[in-house]
Structure formats: structure tokens, C-alpha cells
Amino acid sequence: MDANSVFFFILTLFIGAGAGIFAYNRLFSKNSGKSMATTESTVLLESIEKVFKVVMAEGYFTEIYNYQHDKNFWNLIKDKKKALIIAKAKVLVGYDFGKMRFHFSEGDRKMIIDYFPDPEILSMDTDYKFYDIEQGWLNRFQSDDYTAILNEAKQTMNDKALESDLPRIATNQVQLMMFQIAATMNWKIDMELAESNKGHIKELGKYHPTQAKIENLEIDEES
After folding, report:
1. Secondary structure string (H, E, C) spanning the chain
2. Are 81 and 141 within 8 A, CB to CB?
3. 24-41, pLDDT tens digit by residue?
4. What does the alpha-carbon distance between residue 156 and residue 150 come to, in Å, rounded to a whole number?
5. From CA 175, how far away is CA 203, in angstroms rounded?
6. Separation of alpha carbons 161 and 157, rounded Å
7. Which of 16, 59, 130, 170 minimizes the number of CB atoms within 10 Å of its CB?
8. Mean pLDDT along residues 133-140
9. In this predicted model, what pLDDT tens digit does every residue of 63-115 receive, in sequence order?
10. Where are the transmembrane segments (predicted)?
């Protein structure tokens, strides 16, 4: 092989290698631009507190929430937006024993409760889904609208949970638990509550049946 042939062979190798590297870089950069994503997150721990909260009842709720907002522009154009929201929540009701006031009588082996707090919602896990979202040309949904809708739906769910039978169940459960634990340790519990507190706890422990009225149906029987 003469010198010209060797030179031509080496030149062909360099050109082919360069074209291959160029094509590979173009293909890699094109694909990587479409598929690669970078995310960053920062978690800040603000505080840690010791608590003595005990869950006594658990409930599941579903709420169908209709939202509609009508807007009138100069009494000429009426524009509305509306949405259907289905909200689901898991609600945990219990007691914060840090709010309870009590003292001990060592000689009598008694735990004397001076104040008994109300049951409260300790946790609420919610899930929202929006359906049938409609909006006009001028009256459109903004981020603040979604935030307001979710806050109102969550507050409604919170109110319904407190109006449900969960507080009664939690009240009866916590008293049963406390008396059973005291009995296993040969202690007694005395509830020396103020009259207002005593009456309130007694009322919470009552079962309130749903008031429902069923109308009589008139049925015409024809033979």
C-alpha cells in the first residue's frame, strides 16, 4: 500500500469517527432535553413538641360540593363559572390530655380529675376532585378561587364531623379506657368536675338520634 492510500485510509477513519461522534452528541442531547428533569426540595424542621394526644374515634366522610359564581359586567354581560367538587376525608377524633387538670391522692390511691376537656379533631386527611368545571370568557377560575373553595369545603367537613357521633364515641371510649387502666393498677378515678363541665361531658356522652319524619304514602289499590 502506497503512502497516498495510507493517508486516504487514515483520513477516512477520522472523518467517519468525527461524524459518528457528532451524530451521537446530537441524538443524546435531543433525547436528554425531552426526558430528563431536575427537581429540588428543601425540608425545614421548624419545631418538635411533646404531646399527649390519643385518638379515640375514626370516621370517613364524603361531601359533594357545588360551587357557582355569577358575575355581571355593567349589566350587559352575565358570565358564570361553576364546578362540582367531591371531597373525601378521614377524620380522627380524640383528646389532648395536656388540657386535662387533675391531682393525686396517694393515701387513697385516687386520681382526681378537676377538669375534663372536650374531644377535638386531631387529624383530617382530605382528598378533593374537581368535576364539570365550567367558566366564561371573562369570569374564569384563578388560583385564589381554588384555595377558597378547598378551605370552605374543609371547614364544612370539620363542622360535620363535630356534629356527628364521633365526639360521643370518643367521650365514652376515653372514660372507659381511663377507668380500665386505673383498675389494673388498683387505683380509682374520681371526677370532681365543676357543674358546667360535668353537665357538658354528660351531654357529649349521650346518643342523639337523627330526627327524621316519614310521610305516609297513600297507595291506591285497584283490582
Report:
1. CCHHHHHHHHHHHHHHHHHHHHHHHHHHHHHHHHHCCCCCCCCCCCCCCCCCEEEEEEEEEEEEEEEEEEEEECCCEEEEEEEEEEEEEEEEEEEEHHHCEEEEECCCCEEEEEECCCCEEEEEEEEEEEEEEECCCCCCCCHHHHHHHHHHHHHHHHHHHHHCCHHHHHHHHHHHHHHHHHHHCCCEEEECCCHHHHHHHHHHCCCCCCCCCCCCCCCCCCC
2. yes
3. 566 555 555 555 667 787
4. 10
5. 14
6. 6
7. 16
8. 78
9. 888 888 887 777 667 778 888 989 899 999 999 999 999 998 988 899 999 99
10. 6-24
CA distances from 197 to 49, 101, 155, 202 (A): 28, 12, 26, 9
Distance (Å, whole) CA 158 – CA 121? 8
44, pLDDT greater than 60: yes
Could you tell me the three cell numbers for 56?
379515640
Nearest alpha-carbon partner for 59 in 151, 169, 154: 169
Write the CB contacts of 21 (distance below 8 Å, at least 6 apart in sequence): none
Q: Please name the amino acid found at residue 15.
A: I
Q: CA-CA distance, 85 to 66, in Å (whole number)?
A: 6
